[in-house]
Amino acid sequence: MKVLVPKAYKGRLPKIDDAEIVIIDGSQPVADEHLDAEVLVAWGQPNEVLKDSAQRLTRLRLVQAFLAGPDPVVAAGFDPEVPIASGVGLHDGPVAEHALGMILALLRNFPLAVQNAVRHVWAVGHDGAMKLRANDGRVTTLAGANVTIWGYGSIGSTLAPLVRALGADVTGVARTAGERDGVRVVDDSGLADVLAETDVLVMILPNHPSTANAMDAERFAQLKEGAVLVNVGRGSTVEEEALVEALESGRLAGAALDVTATEPLPAESPLWDQPTLLITPHVAGGRPQHADELLAHNIEAVRTGGVVRNLVRR
Questions:
Q1: How far, in Å, CA of 273 to CA of 268, rounded?
Q2: 212: exposed, middle or buried (Cβ count in 10 Å: 0-12, 13-18, 19+)
Q3: Of the residues 197, 218, 263, 293, which is catalytic?
Q4: In angstroms, rounded to a whole number, what is the distance separating the alpha carbons of residues 122 and 230?
Q5: Which of 282, 290, 303, 309 is catalytic?
Q6: The D-isomer specific 2-hydroxyacid dehydrogenase NAD-binding domain covers which part of the protein (predicted)?
Q7: What tens digit of pLDDT does each residue of 182-231 get?
Q8: How far apart are the first and last CA of the chain?
Q9: Which of 204, 260, 266, 294 could staple 151 via S-S, CB 3.0–4.6 A?
Q10: What CA–CA distance (Å, rounded) separates 254 from 276?
């Protein structure tokens, strides 16, 4: 069995009996000599390369995406009989850590601290970083803060204990309400009430028509004044014009984005000029953990007729 792994993946690879793992240049179409591959790992290939692979790799038995959101892999048009497995769970730790870092950066006024460092300005109080709010009741620490995680899945459930350890109260928002590991989870019907009490809103929503501009002007109006927003999900879920308005009006004390509606973020975007906004270039994930174990399990599953983990429904 030949397994194609793009060289963009730098992690560990499994050792599988009778399997030949071939490292390929994922930026280019698969070479003719490897069209007999039975397994393709999707990680970093451009959309056009994935589409080419869907057309030319006719012997595939498995497409294993290391991406948590397999949208581009599904859109490539692989044969419906070929199972596609996602990388859900592989990025829980890295994305949760990134989100935590962004939260703390906002609460500690790091956006202004970085700007001051560039200007060689020693500003002890960081005055103005997210409006003066030391004594006006707005959030400055996770201790006692209400943190809402919108898109409460595996990443959210990894982040929750991290912020709770620092004293925060956590509420999740998901399609189904209930309780998960001691965290209250509400559905969309309870979102407005939760937003009204939210100090820190973390968005981890996937890209889907139902989540497009989910955080719009109406939702910003429902959000507690002086809250901070972190988005490590997908850029399509935040209406950026409404975000800019919320930041400039001071209703939103600060925001941190790892994702934007258009990537790379255009140089002319007004987001770049927001002094209370922290931007990272879609790097919260990018370091899949235990991908070798997932790949080994799913190869064995397709060989033996077992259950493919993270199977994508199409």
A1: 9
A2: middle
A3: 263
A4: 27
A5: 282
A6: 100-284
A7: 999 999 999 999 999 999 999 999 998 999 999 999 999 999 999 999 99
A8: 25
A9: 204
A10: 5
Give residue-wise pLDDT tens across range 118-163. Answer: 999 887 665 444 444 555 566 889 999 999 999 999 999 999 999 9
DSSP code of residue 270:
G
Q: Is 108 a catalytic residue?
A: no
**Which CATH number applies to 92-279?**
3.40.50.720
pLDDT at 228: 95
Question: CA-CA distance, 231 to 271, in Å (whole number)?
Answer: 14
Side-by-side strand order, sheet with 2-6: 20-24, 2-6, 39-42, 62-65, 84-85
Q: Which of 234, 239, 240, 297 is catalytic?
A: 234
* Architecture of domain 2-90+288-304 in this structure: 3-Layer(aba) Sandwich (3.40)
Q: Is 12 a catalytic residue?
A: no
Tell me how far apart the alpha carbons of residues 216 and 272 are, in angstroms, rounded to a whole number: 19
Q: How far is CA 178 from the centre of its chain?
A: 23
β-pair type (200-203, 183-186): unpaired
Pull the structure tokens for residue 77: 């048009």
The alpha carbon of 280 is separated from its chain's Cα centroid by a whole number of angstroms, namely: 12
| Percent of the chain whose predicted confidence (pLDDT) is above 90 | 86
Exposed (0-12), middle (13-18) or buried (19+): which is 271, by Cβ within 10 Å?
Answer: middle
Domain with CATH 3.40.50.720 in the chain: 92-279
Structure tokens at 143: 């201790």
Instruction: Write down the pTM of the prediction.
Output: 0.90
pLDDT score, position 231: 98
d(CA 116, CA 301): 54
Is 282 an active-site residue? yes
**Encoded amino acid at 60, one letter:** L
CA pair distance 68, 303, nearest whole angstrom:
24
CA dist., res. 241 & res. 245, Å (int)? 6
Phi and psi at residue 286, to the nearest 5°: 80, 0
Q: Are the beta carbons of 130 and 253 closer than 8 angstroms?
A: yes
